[in-house]
Design a protein that fits this description.
With 278 residues, the protein is an alpha/beta fold. The protein contains ten helices and twelve strands. Bound molecules: NADP nicotinamide-adenine-dinucleotide phosphate (NAP). The site of NADP nicotinamide-adenine-dinucleotide phosphate (NAP) has 24 residues, from helix 5, helix 6 and helix 9.
Amino acid sequence: MANKYVMAGVMGWPVAHSRSPIIHNHWIRQYGLQGAYGLFPVQPDKLEDAIRGLPALGLAGCNITIPHKVNAMKLMDVVDPLALRMGAINTIVVTPEGALHGFNNDGFGYIQSLRDEKPDWQANAGPATVLGAGGAARAVVLSLLDQGATEIRLINRTRAKAQALCDEFGKGIQVVDWSERHEALSGAALLINTTNQGMHGEPELDLQLDRLPVSALVSDAIYIPLETALLRNARLRGNATVNGLGMLLNQARPAFQAWFGVLPEITPALRQAILATF
Ligand code: NAP
């Protein structure tokens, strides 16, 4: 790897807002590697051409973001079993033979972000309440189950989507109606918001925390802003909180390792470099 110039990037539409180039180029510099990580704005109808071009261009691989995560999976030669269960990929690794391998590190990133905040965190410590049933929720729910969670209360505005996820992933998930979300916090050990409510440009998440134990860990997949109203309210009442930046940073680590051969660390300098862009 020492003398090889390695290139990777992120495909999305739009993709200009992505912080991934800052993360990966920071690590390339930190570890003294030869290479670069770029932004690839790829329209949905050009996705297949773009992905098929990766080996031809000699890229080590790329990240896949909205709206391509589901369709890109269908173009892989090999899909990692976990990504297959999630139904989406966020990372492509091009093998030396030019084959395309698809992975999904979002769930790993989420679990690791909890452990960074609370090293002794256990998935079976008590009920987990999950809001949302989109792509982020799939990664979160599946990884919680894989870590040993035994009671997940799944709540989505469109109940049918939560039910479909429950039917697919099965045991351990209980679907709760959106109208009962406030009550569903009772006795929870973990709360996670995977809806887009609270994200920059969206209304705040409408959730009353009164019934949530102060011992519960409260997390939000959103990282713009870093502290959503949900996290602020939780912090002010004494709950430990985890924002979405840890999920973003941690999902990048295994991808960087696959492309550049080094498992990188999340340092204060890296966090600072990201925070400077907000
Ligand atoms: P998605 O698949 O589009 O899902 C969006 C979710 O938000 C759905 O459950 C949707 O419910 C819900 N929602 C939308 N409008 C709502 C409203 N007005 N009231 C209540 N619920 C509403 O999106 P996604 O990919 O899962 O992403 C969700 C969030 O996670 C985004 O903020 C994204 O930035 C974040 N995320 C972060 C990371 C990270 O690394 N930190 C990774 C992935 C995603 P319905 O089913 O009813 O429409």
